[in-house]
Amino acid sequence: MIKSDFRRYSRAVDPGRKRPRVFLFLLILFLNPGFQFVLLCRLQRWVATIPAVGKLLRFLLWYVTTRQFCCDVDPHASIGPGFYVPHPIGIVIGGKVRIGAECTLLQNVTIGRGVGGDADPVIGDRVFLYTGAVVSGAVTIGDDAQIGANSVVVRDVPAATFVGGVPARTIKLLP
């Protein structure tokens, strides 16, 4: 999965593929906070599977993630390959949320149960969540959907739809 995440970031950083691969790797690894955030999330989920020592390592990775990026990602959240977060500030992904492949999250996105909820959201493939979007409750977001800035999604969103507002309503069907 980290390989597909790196490919996604390399397409964003160097769309023409003019830089050498090694230089691009070092550039993304050390200077791209979005990739660092995604890498810490992947490591946190992997470390959580190690018995005994895993809890301590997971806590350390969680601490670094929350302090450096002001984000909170539950290690039980399932995040698909090609996850892209260009601005990793204020992102909250809780519980057992499932996020599909090639999804993009901008800053201050919250995905989780909400207060008193009993099920977690399911996000499809290639979904784009704009700044400040909130997805709460037992919600399913279809593939290729887009959630507008500062929208609050509390109902299912069909595939290839742009939704916005509070509560989120269909604004436009995407081609």
Topology of helices and strands:
Elements (H helix, E strand, L loop, with lengths): L1 H12 L7 H11 L1 H15 L5 H17 L2 E2 L4 E2 L12 E2 L4 E2 L4 E2 L4 E3 L9 E2 L4 E2 L4 E3 L3 E2 L4 E2 L4 E2 L7 E4 L4 E5 L2
Parallel strand pairs: 1-3, 2-4, 3-6, 4-7, 5-8, 6-9, 7-10, 8-11, 9-12, 11-13
Antiparallel strand pairs: 13-14
Helix pairs in contact: 1-3, 3-4
Question: What does it look like?
Answer:
There is one protein chain. With 175 residues, the chain is an alpha/beta fold. It has one domain: Hexapeptide repeat proteins (UDP N-Acetylglucosamine Acyltransferase, domain 1, 3 Solenoid). Helices cover 31% and strands 20% of the residues. It is built from four helices and 14 strands. The strands form three sheets. A five-stranded parallel β-sheet has the order 1-3-6-9-12. The chain has a five-stranded mixed β-sheet with strand order 5-8-11-13-14, with no helix packed on it. Strands 2-4-7-10 form a four-stranded parallel β-sheet, with no helix packed on it. Strand 13 and strand 14 form a beta hairpin. Helix 1 runs antiparallel to helix 3 and helix 3 packs antiparallel against helix 4. It is globular.
